[in-house]
Specification:
The protein contains 17 helices and eleven strands. The protein is an alpha/beta fold. Strand 10 and strand 11 form a beta hairpin. The structure holds NADPH dihydro-nicotinamide-adenine-dinucleotide phosphate.
Length: 387
Amino acid sequence: MSRRRLSILGATGSVGTSTLDLVERNPNRFEIVALTAARNVEALAQAARRTSAKLAVIDDPNLLPELEERLAGTRCVAATGPDALVEAAAGDAEWVMAAIVGCAGLKPVMAAIEAGRTVALANKEALVTAGEVMIAAARKSGATILPVDSEHNAIFQCLAGSRSSDVSKIILTASGGPFRTRSRDEMAAMTPEQAVAHPNWSMGAKISVDSATMMNKGLELIEAHHLFGLPSAKVDILVHPQSVIHSMVEFADGSVLAQMGSPDMRIPIAHALAYPERIETPAERLDLGRIGSLTFEAPDIERFPALRIARQALEEGGAAPIILNAANEEAVAAFLDRRIAFLDICQIVEEALLRTGAMQPRSIAEVIDIDRDARALARELMSELAA
Ligand code: NDP
């Protein structure tokens, strides 16, 4: 079997390094074409050397000379800038792992889709903001989108071989995050360190804060709508603190299928990398006897308003999910920077949605314009809050 040619966008992050781990354990199955990072030039150069990558792209142009120096003596080309990122996404690779965090990943993901590649999609913000345009582009180019997010990957696995008309609903499970049992008063004083300390999963800072507000589940609701073509009413959210069941599908006959596994992102990543085959992973095997019991609770929308706000944005459609995502990215960055408090995050997002009129983006350029304006508005709202 020839090796699968793979590019990893966001190779130095949590999903990116887990992907590299699997690739390096399976050198006969994968060949790295391109790797990208924002600023972590050292990890990028090391990974490019180890995997004999052909192209390494650093987003920060000031770091290009250092990247070139670190890659001296290799055949790997060092590059920077939006065109290089697009080249990494749509160049010579047949499979692209999209693991950049935030809307910054949108253009390269679209380039990979338009070029008809198979895209293993972790970058949920790209789908939340431009889902309709992206799915339409995939239909046109013949690109395949394989979900990497553990919940969507679970649903994808449960759906195998079924007709979508036989699905009555999907059930996204949520761990409830680090503040699942906290009151609003307690949450008001939470620090970035407490918010990123997820009980089950080890992830990047932004998604960890999203899990603490439960905006992550809100984004996943919108992601599920686009990936599986289901309306909001057919996507339920269920809190399951053990993170053993990664999501479920209920069918017309009342059967419910669930996908289970230990909470290790290498399982869904391996599924998307090797699809339709399976590869070994070092993930801990599930020992249900030791776990003993699996519990479930309804989500608490009063303590976690992000779930309500995201569902409203999905139902409103148009620009609302873009504004939701942009304001959330800005607010999470400000919280991590200690400029706003934990509960301010959802307040900023809700206010940004209230202050923006209805728009219907029809292209990526329009999505990017709305995203830019929503970020400016969110920053303005945060300065009003500080005044
Ligand atoms: P990390 O923050 O750990 O990594 C992000 C990666 O993107 C890094 O390689 C980073 O480079 C790069 N990057 C950041 N900003 C930019 C930019 N402006 N331009 C180009 N590259 C950039 O994120 P995660 O790995 O946690 O998450 C990646 C995506 O996957 C997110 O969309 C997240 O929601 C999703 N996801 C993550 C899961 C997880 O377990 N971590 C689970 C499910 C989904 P550098 O290191 O140089 O900053």
